[in-house]
Design a protein that fits this description.
- The protein is mainly beta.
- Helices cover 8% and strands 44% of the residues.
- It has two domains: 177 residues, Beta Barrel (Cathepsin D, subunit A, domain 1), CATH 2.40.70.10; 131 residues, Cathepsin D, subunit A, domain 1.
- Strands 1, 2, 15, 16, 17, 18, 19, 20, 21, 22, 23 and 24 form a twelve-stranded mixed β-sheet that branches. Strands 5-6-11-7-10-9 form a six-stranded mixed β-barrel.
- Strand 25 and strand 26 form a beta hairpin.
- The protein is globular and about 55 Å long.
């Protein structure tokens, strides 16, 4: 199975995943499986912020990733995939041409499956929600983002609150006021790595795992250390071959293996398979020696609401069964 993955980081497939709450009921209810029949086309949604100039429609792409409207040098909005697994934003070549910006240099881009030297441009202003940045350097990435104009990375979001309502197709990016989760939500504590990744501590069965929250990836992939730990605890596993395509267009092989439930605090994710791959990015992030996994939009998109609060350093989530 071939996985097309966008952004500066990618994900593979946590097939037919469903969320539930470990302590809510003796037999927890779950969200609809991601293998359910395709939903009708998703309507436009609004990004809201304190001032009207920041309000613009946004969409989700065919695999559910969020496209946020971004204004560059006063032009736009350009559709950038909201990617919590990418430390920096990037655009495709068409955007640079539209802005009339020639490359001003080159840099080494680390994708999930490989690395490549790519050109970059520098924009004077970069506006999304109520965030405005200046003199921002944007790498130019291959046009493999499902129609999006680039990637919205996590630089500049350290004091922001991102509210994503998957049920009503709405995304809001505002300053965080340290708001607690409303009634009916559960929270998952996060830590942030030096390169900006959001990490949640969890378990796959009885194996402790570092879980990276990645809204920019199609699905979910784990490293070889997790596979080895699962094998020691649960014995041999049936394997299905797959492949992963990264932001640098490199292809890397993977294996889909059956896994026990994934637990993040009080939340349980039930999925029959998880893709395992020795992705280069795990080594770059220094997460190749301990069990780790990237959780992508195939799983996150099954939630009703996902809030990422960078000041509180927590996820606040709501699923349909805990209204």
């Amino acid at each position: 199975m071939r996985q097309q993955l966008g952004g500066a980081v990618v994900l593979a497939a946590l097939a037919s995943a469903a969320w539930s709450f470990a302590q809510a009921e003796p037999t927890p209810a779950t969200l609809p499986s991601s293998s359910a029949p395709a939903a009708p086309p998703i309507a436009e949604v609004a990004v809201t912020a304190p001032e009207p100039r920041y309000v613009a429609p946004t969409l989700r792409d065919r695999i559910g990733r969020i496209w946020a409207p971004v204004y560059l040098n006063g032009k736009g909005p350009y559709r950038l995939v909201l990617d919590t697994g990418a430390s920096n934003s990037a655009v495709i070549a068409k955007v640079a041409e539209d802005l009339g910006l020639p490359p001003t240099g080159a840099l080494l881009l680390h994708g999930v499956t490989g690395s490549a030297t790519v050109p970059f441009v520098t924009v004077d202003t970069f506006v999304v929600g109520d965030m405005e940045a200046h003199s921002t350097m944007l790498p130019i990435v291959p046009d493999a983002l499902g129609g999006a104009d680039g990637v919205l990375g996590m630089e500049g979001l350290s004091n922001k609150r991102i509210f994503i309502d998957f049920l009503h197709d709405k995304i809001t990016i505002i300053r965080s006021h340290m708001q607690r989760a409303p009634n009916g939500y559960v929270t998952i504590p996060l830590t942030r790595t030096a390169n900006g990744l959001l990490l949640a501590k969890g378990f796959v069965g009885s194996v402790r795992v570092q879980a990276i929250i990645d809204t920019g990836g199609q699905a979910t992939v784990a490293n070889l250390a997790l596979q080895a730990a699962l094998k020691r605890r649960h014995g041999n596993q049936d394997l299905r071959l797959s492949s992963i395509v990264g932001a640098t267009d490199d292809v890397q092989s993977g294996q889909d293996v059956p896994v026990p439930p994934v637990s993040l605090g009080p939340v349980v994710i039930r999925a029959p398979f998880l893709t395992i791959s020795d992705l280069q990015i795990f080594a770059i992030w220094k997460l190749n020696r301990e069990p780790a996994m990237l959780i992508g939009i195939d799983t996150l998109g099954l939630l009703d609401i996902l809030v990422i609060d960078y000041r509180r350093m927590e996820l606040q989530i709501r699923t349909r069964h805990n209204d």
